[in-house]
Each structure stands twice: as C-alpha cells, then as structure tokens.
Amino acid sequence: MALPSYASPLQRVWHYAFRILCGLIFFFLMFPIAVIIPLSFNAQDFFTFTSEMLALDPAGYSLKHYVDFFTNPDWQQAMWNSLSIAPMATLVSVSLGTLAAIGLSQSHVPFKRVIMAVLISPMIVPLIISAAGMYFFFSAIGLQGTYWGVVLAHANLGIPFVIITVTATMVGFDRSLTRAAASMGAGPVRTFFKIQLPLILPGVISGALFAFITSFDEVVVVIFVGSAAQQTLPWQMFTGLREQISPTILAVATLMVVLSIMLLATLEIMRRRNERLRGMTPG
Amino acid sequence: MTTQATDTDSLDLRGGEPLKRSLARALRRQKIRALLLITPLLAFIVIGFLFPIGSMLSRSVENDIMMEILPQTIVQLDEWDVDSTELPSEEVFLALVTDLQIAAENRTALNFARRMNFESAGFTTMVRRAQRSVRTWDLETDGPFRDQMIELHAGWGDIANWRALKAYSSPYTIGYYLAAVDLTMVTGHIEPLPDNQSLHLMLFWRTAWMSGLICFLTLVLGYPVAFMLANVKERYANILLIMVLLPFWTSLLVRTSSWKVLLQEQGVINQLLVWVGIVADDNRLTMINNKFGVVIAMTHILLPFMILPLYSVMKTIPPTYVRAAKSLGANDWTAFWRVYFPQSVPGIGAGAILVFIMAVGYYITPELVGGPSGMFISNRIAHQWNVSGNWGLVGALGTILLVAVLILYWVYDKIVGIDNVKLG
To answer: Which of A25, A85, A175, A210 allows an S-S link to A161, with CB 3.0 to 4.6 Å?
Structure first.
C-alpha cells in the first residue's frame, strides 16, 4: 500500500486519511482491553483513573486488588474450579475430536455433510438453548450440579473447534507417510502415535487451546448445569458485575488478558510450525 | 493377450476373487473404519447435546399435566361448548371435585394450577382454596357441588376460567407457541394478548434489528481494517493481525466488564468528556443499561468475527486485477468499486451472517450492559427459566430462535460451506 511518487494530492490525503481511520479502528479494538490493565492497579476502589494515577504518583497505584483476588476464598475457589474443569473438558473434546477428525478426513466417508453438521452443532445453537437443554438432561441423569456434568457440557461446546482445526490440518497431511509406516511393519496404533500425531500436532494443539478457552470463558452453560460448588471464574465475574461490582474484577480481567496473550503466542508458534511442516510435504 | 479386458468384472486376483468385488470390499472396509473413528464422538454429541436440546424443545408442545391431574374433568368438559354463556354442568363439577380430591391426596393439584397460571392469573388461589375443602367432601352425599365450589372461590363460577381450562386441556398444545408470539387462546379462540403483556414479538424484533445494526457496524469498521491487513506487507500484517486476534482471544466477560467500566456514569469515557468540557459534571451521559451500551459493546466484541473472514477472502484477491483496471483508465474509486469490491462480497456475506448468527443468540452482554431496554430474546428465555419456571415457553421461544439461527446457518453453509470455517 505504499504511496507511489506520482500520487495526486487528493490521493495523498486519502492515503493518510485511510491510515488514520484504520488506526482509530485498531484503537477501538485495543483500548477497552488495554484500559483495564492500568485501572486494575488503582489504589482506590474506583473504576476510573484517580488524579494520583494520572499524575503517575506511585501512591495512586497498588496491588491491593490482586491481593484480594489471591486471598479471597471465593475467587480462589472459582480459580481452582476453572482450572480443574477446563483441562478435563479439553481432554475429552480433544481425544474424541481428534479421532473423529481423522475419520472425517478419510477419502470415503458416508453421510459426511450430515455428520459434519451434527459435530459442528454445539457451535451454532445459541448458548441459552444448549444450557437449558443440558440442564434438564443432566438433572434427569443426576449429573446436574456435579463436576462431571460441567466437564461433559463444556466438552460438547469445545468439540466443534477441535474438529475444525484438526480437519484443516489433515488437509495437508501426506497419506503416503502412514502407508510407508504400515509397509515397514508398524501397526495402526504405532503409526498414529509415531507418524500421524506428530505431524498433525499443531492442529491438535490449536484445537485444544480453542476448547480450553471455550470452557474457561464459558458462563451460560455452567450457570445452568453447575451448582455453587462449580462456580468458575467467569461465573464469579458475571455475578460480580451483576450485583456488587468490585474492582477485584479488574485484576481478574487483567490476569485473563495475560492468559489470552500467552494462548495467542502459543497458537502463533503452532501456526508457524505447521506452515513449516507443510512446506516440507508436497500438496 | 486378446483376452485382456479393460472391464474389471473379468479381472481375477490370484485367489480367484474378481477385482471388482475385492475393491468394493476394500472401500467398504475403509468406510467402516472412518465411521468407527467418528462414532464415539457422534454418539457423544447426539446423546449429550442434540438429544437434550430436542427433549427440551419438545416441552414446547407437551401439556399432559392437565390430562394427568384432571382426567375426568377434561373428559366431561368435552361436552361443554367454549362459546356457551352458561357454566359447565353439574357433572363437570362433580368430576372436578373427584379429580381435585385425588390431586390433593397426591399433592399435585398446584402443579396444574401453576400451568394454568402461565396463561391466566388466579388459578393458584382458586385451587388452593378448593383443595383445602374438597378433601372432606363426600362425593355421594355432599352434592351438588357447583354452588359449593363457587362459594369457595368465585373464580370457579367465572366462565372465562372454564374457557381457559378447556382451551389448554389437550395433551399437546400450541399454547406455548401462541404465548411466544404474544397470542393467547384463553377464550377458546386465538386472540392477541393485551398490550401490557405483549413482549415477545417486540423482543424478537429488537433482537433482529439490533443484531442487524451491530452486523452493519462491524462491517463498516471491519472492512477498512481487513482491506489494510490484506494489502500491507506481510510483516506488518502479522503485527496488525495481533491487534485483531487479541480481542478475539480475550474472554467475553473481560471485554464486557471493561465496557461496563468505560461506559459507567463514573466511568472513564464520562470522566474524559467532563475533563475535556464537552459534558457538564452534573449531566454525565447515560451510556450503559440501554441499547447504546449493548450496541457498542457487542460491536467491539464481534468485530474480529467480521474482520477475519473478510481478511481471508481479501487475501486471495489478486492485486493485478485492480492494477489492470487502473491501467485501462479507471480511477481509484471505480477500480475499487467495480473490480475489488465485488470480489470481496463473499467475505462480506460470510462475516455478516456469522456476526448476525452470533449476535441473535447473545445473552451475557445484553444482561450486563443492556438493562431492561437493551434486553435480547435470550435474556427473556433465561428469565422465563429462572424466575417463572415456564419451561414450555422456554421451549417455544427457544425453538423459534433456533429455527431462525438454523436458517441463517443453512444460508451460511450455502455461501461459505461449513468445511471452510476458519478460526484465527
């Protein structure tokens, strides 16, 4: 988009105006996320910048909201609930999802479109409907308000992401490699773990990250399917925002932004690795 | 070599098996293997997701509670005409007392009262009063019951209540769907609900137009950004893309809370406006708990879902076309509008439908920054579930919402194809 030297004045004006416009939109995208970071260090219980903060006076900043987060039993319980539900839900989605994605990328799959539609459906159905449906079902089978109930519900929600990312990676997978392994005497299980899995691993990991963040961020379903003992971080934030809005939420939000930066970085590394691997295999 | 045929039918393998059959068997085995890999997950989703949703939605027509609790009354009521101006006969009242005696014994009488209360208020008190007394009555000797029932509660002598009871007595009802579109059949005929009770059509309409507006705003904001991403050097595009992906990956709750913080009366934006002097300190803008708050927060939250599909389409548009148009004498605008823009339309379609599908089902953001005037249909569904416990209506509203989403999804599949959904 470099401006050619023969550009007319109008083109010049437009060129810079367009860049400013895009800059403003990027600002709109980033500002709400960036603004909570400094606010979370507020020494007061306000949701705005105090005059001390604006004057960059160290007295205006403190870690008290973080201290509150790490000492308050409610928030701690919520954090541990989130950290124990999300990985387990991810494990279920990824193990079932990867198998199915491998099945789906075989060359002859009957009813492929229907199966695909069914597997993607948890992503399509509005959350409130999924939540109400799963509430009745899990109540009927006695899983409502249990750890496993929430895990299974979240596993459902994460599956479409695993399917999409892993099938996308499978497109670039060179099938002659598994055949080569088989011809050298490796069984299907060994071929899978030694040949196929390492090659599709970037897709599996990105799928896992998506499934993890889906569970980690999810509020609606956990409110319906879970009980107070499964109160997760987003649930705690949700009640916090609805009722007594406490600045500790800003500290939690900042920590969650840090988490998403880490996830994003991991995903980017995976993507590059995947591209590199694909560069090696033709097709 | 004259016997060599191209037809696989006549080709035999060494074991004497025709090649065609052998190939078919290999293919079948391959299909079975694929299905075996898919089956666990398919079963998991069908049992743990589709079945629960289906059975929840089927509550929208189920109404067997009436038949369960008032079996005899309903049979007797069959004779009675809804349009008649006279109360049902003594037989009906006898049947009612019989049914209520059994129901009072089983403590189920209030269940049917609760069901009727969704349609017409007052049944709970009527039943509560009645079930206390009918227990002691003797069916053989204490009749006739009509006047006694009316004495217990005048509601039993109100024809309107009998009409409602008859209208909602069938084991399957369209009553919940009628309620979902602000209609009622309490009089025995389908009629609009009074204005002060009509809420759902307005909410469906609001959900639709606000989602449309949000979709439009994300397009207006997303198009230039996607254009820029697709046309700068890849090195810069990767850096700029992070600014799109970070919000995409940041928790919905985090983004909603940050808008709540920004838009509050004592929030950052008001603080800034007061400091600049645009707004007086005692006259701060109300930007939250209304439609404005929902639109701005949801536009921000859904913007990445517009940018990413737009970007992936624009990346594939060869820059040579625009250059060719310019070399043929088109000015910048014509080259863009006549050559570039039409090629980006699939991206617009994909992004717009995706954003719209996501927006119509939103619950969290309207709940937190919407207030009563920014409420979406999902919030109403949650309210019916939490507060009223009207599960049939939850099912009916949910079915309508789901059907709308599925139609949009079908269109999305036609335009983009579900296999082509890209993430990140």
So the answer is: A210
Q: Is the pLDDT of residue A197 over 60?
A: yes
Each residue's pLDDT tens digit, A208-257: 999 999 999 999 999 999 998 999 999 999 998 888 778 889 999 999 99
- Count of structural domains, chain B: 3
Expressed as residue numbers, the domain containing B274 is: 200-420
Backbone dihedral angles phi then psi of residue A39, each to the nearest 5 degrees: -60, -25
Portion 296-355 of B in contact with A at CB < 8 A: 300, 303-304, 332
Residues B144 and B230 in one domain: no
Of A28, A117, A136, which has the smallest distance from its Cβ to B418's Cβ? A117
Q: Is CATH 1.10.3720.10 the right assignment for the domain spanning A72-280?
A: yes
Which letter does DSSP use for residue B278 in this model?
S
Which is nearest to B304 in space by CA: B232, B241, B353?
Answer: B241
Q: Counting one residue from A and one from B, how many pairs have CB atoms under 8 Å apart? A: 264
Report pTM.
0.88
Partners of B184 in the β-ladder: B191
Token pair for residue B267? 């929030």
The alpha carbons of chain A give a radius of gyration, in whole angstroms, of: 24
Substitution target from A24, A29, A96, A262 for chain B, most B beta carbons within 10 A: A29
Query: Is the Cα dihedral B127, B129, B130, B135 positive or negative?
Result: positive
Q: Does residue B3 belong to any structural domain of this protein?
A: no
Report if residue B1 sits inside a domain.
Answer: no
For residue B423, what are the β-bridge partners? none
